[in-house]
Design goal:
- Keywords: Membrane, Transmembrane, Transmembrane helix.
- It is a single chain.
- The chain is 40% helix and 25% strand.
- The protein has two domains: 5-63; 83-137, no CATH class.
- The mean pLDDT is 87.
- The chain has 142 residues and is α+β, with helices and mostly antiparallel strands.
- It has three helices and seven strands.
- It has a four-stranded mixed beta sheet with strand order 1-2-3-4, with no helix packed on it.
- The chain has helices spanning 16-34, 40-63, 121-134, and strands at residues 5-8, 67-70, 74-78, 86-89, 93-99, 102-107, 111-115.
Length: 142
Amino acid sequence: MKNIYFDDISILKKNWKKIALLIVSLILILFGTFNDILSNNWNKWIKASGFFMFSVYYLLKVIRKNYVQWNKIGMTIRINSYFREKKVTFVEINSYKFQNNMLTIYQSNKTTKVDLSSIFEADKKRLIQIIKDNIVPNSIKM
């Protein structure tokens, strides 16, 4: 059984470390690009460290095989894959069902199926709860 890494990007208080990392790396890139006080060699290292921080931040999302990221608008689900993501918009959800370890989300323009057979039961429940909490109340038909 495997865990899902959940990332709620709509809560700024919870994600202050990520935001601080991105701001520091942006400052390093700008400082390394536009500053003539230090030597060229130092400016290159400062700028490279800023780009390295950006790379680490975004690579953490890619190297996780089971990853769910959401905000108030929609969610990105990546289960048992490193690169294939399924995007779901909460407003477009007509209904969903969880049956035989398969989560099926019916949207107005498509149907998304996610196989959750290798995922812990607590993570399955949390994924379904995230969908329940964020969908538009009158659009769901169970």
